[in-house]
Amino acid sequence: MGSPLESQPKPGKVRFIPLSYNQSDSQTSALRLILTLRPDWENTDGKIEFIRFTDGITNTLLKVINKRPNLSPEEIDDEAVLLRAYGQGTDLIIDRERETQNHELLMQYNLAPALLARFHNGMLYRFIQGSVTSPADLQRKEIWRAVAKRLAEWHAVVPCLPSARAPLSAEIVGSEEIGISAPTPSKKDPALQSAIDSVAPGKLAPNVWTVMQKWIYALPTKTETEKSRQASLQKELTKIVEEFSNRPGLGKDSLVFAHCDLLSGNVIIQPKKTGTTTPSDKEIVSFIDYEYATPSPAAFDIANHFAEWGGFDCEHHLLPAKSQRLDFIREYIRSYFSFQKPDSPVDEETEIRKLFDEVDVWRGIPGFYWGIWALIQATISQIDFDYASYAEVRLGEYWAWRAEGDGSRVAEGREISVRERRWAEES
């Protein structure tokens, strides 16, 4: 990925193209968008090609290249553009205006590729060279050290900013079914947005709690079973907010600008510059996909990343043990304060221990977060993935963590879960 984040457009000045990407007519609609952005490509001796990276309800991602003769693959990639089109129904899950704001904000700190243009249902941005990591790569020392450094930079230098809150664009249901007063008769007006934003009083909105509240309101409620589950999850969110929203932590008001989706597919290993002999333990990574980024406790972002060591298959035995988590957090803390440049000396060892303990406390929350997300995806997604089963696995992580914390698992004589056992192992 390099530090290819040069000649960035100024925030708020990103061009808008009044066209849409059409999945059923992908080639034609994508070509219209690209030639509007790069009209000179139509009159070159090159061949415009589309390379599909991902396709699904969350987004369609196409790499667009102008394959001109006499250019090396690297030179072609230097001019390549990524076309990202949003999946149908994702307004229930993702605030697309916020995603654009996130991208523009990160551009200011050279932490995101240049955002070249927006269109009705997506965006166009500069292609970033490098190799995508796999879950196994996250366990490699040179990679997790690079991830820790980059995540620390995000958390230390990017400010948490409020969003201008518009009325909900998509109707969400169920608020009257979950044991609390309906915030408003309408399911898509400013009062409902206000109810979501105030779920954690005193905290900058949006944040990780407002995201979970919006998702719970958006859960399906067609059956009594669905209504009961929504009520149960609302009860748990209320408990989580009470227990976690005012815990001390890094950042202003204990919030940092968090990625919140730091799985292996969103970590890019930057290519080494030609002619350099950079040691393998000095890898540099960058992060992509900012649709879930929001102010959050640093411990949540780190715990969520650790959960992704097991990949989509949730192989809990692959999660980092205590010694690995401590090493990661040590690298993170040293980098965090080197980026932040505090006025007075910092006791790094104390900060390392505090954050290590805090991540331990937060370890069950990512399962709750993605479990709710997967329940919604199971009803709206068109891609071939068993979201319903994934939801049960992720929510199971949360309930296993609760059972460990309140002693109910031991009291009932149940065997400890693989994930909880792995988390407690020293190495």
TrEMBL record:
Q: Which GO terms describe its biological process?
A: phosphatidylethanolamine biosynthetic process
Instruction: Please tell me which top-level EC class this enzyme sits in.
Output: transferase
InterPro entries noted in UniProt: Kinase-like_dom_sf
Q: Which GO terms describe its cellular component?
A: cytoplasm
**Entry's EC annotation:** 2.7.1.82
| Pathway involvement of the protein, from the record | Phospholipid metabolism; phosphatidylethanolamine biosynthesis; phosphatidylethanolamine from ethanolamine: step 1/3
Q: Which UniProt keywords apply?
A: Kinase, Transferase
One GO molecular-function entry: ethanolamine kinase activity
Q: Which family does it belong to?
A: Belongs to the choline/ethanolamine kinase family.
> Which PANTHER family does this one have?
CHOLINE/ETHANOALAMINE KINASE (PTHR22603), ETHANOLAMINE KINASE (PTHR22603:SF66)
Q: What is this protein called?
A: ethanolamine kinase
Question: Which organism's genome codes for this protein?
Answer: Glarea lozoyensis (strain ATCC 20868 / MF5171)
Lineage runs:
Eukaryota, Fungi, Dikarya, Ascomycota, Pezizomycotina
